[in-house]
Prior knowledge:
The complex is a heterodimer. By secondary structure, chain A is mainly beta.
Amino acid sequence: QSALTQPASVSGSPGQSIAISCTGTSSDVGGYNYVSWYQQHPGKAPKLMIYDVSNRPSGVSNRFSGSKSGNTASLTISGLQAEDEADYYCNSYTSSSSVVFGGGTKLTVL
Amino acid sequence: QLQLQESGPGLVKPSETLSLSCTVSGGSISGSRYYWGWIRQPPGKGLEWIGSMYYSGSTYYNPSLKSRVTISVDTSKTQFSLKLSSVTAADTAVYYCARQLATVTTSDYWGQGTLVTVSS
């Protein structure tokens, strides 16, 4: 299985909105509404931010939202804050009954 | 509050078997509706799903690792383990254990991670 495709890096200024894309195929992202997004700060374990495409766990800021169109899922962060600077990973369920991650996106808050 | 903690050797020799345990506190593995899984991250690289196990014992593995991986639950029901055989330097990574919801894509509780280096 091939990794999902994410941009290597994105950046934005405080207060702005950014979106991170996660592109797969009809055998993973496009075929199931099982896409999750994780935030990872350096040296820390990943943190669940979005699950099942657009659901936000309790305690996660409503500035984080998820969506999907066809084979591409997206994570949108509105009102960027300095603490949002981190690596972000998407993953998806696959037709092989497995899980595939994206390569990760480094978010820089300018 | 659920907590997970990985434990095991930090150094494994090439061709040997990597063995890690994950101790779960603040909750039980057995009789729950959750999956329990392992995810790894090579230094400076991205996340890779290794596999997941349902509390009843059903297992699901990454196809690229399936021939070398075994995930199982300890009879005490407070630990689950990972065994990865015939390791090479490419298996050097931080290994995380996690609790996963019914869709194994959703890992809502994570251990802090443990670095395993494969080297002679």
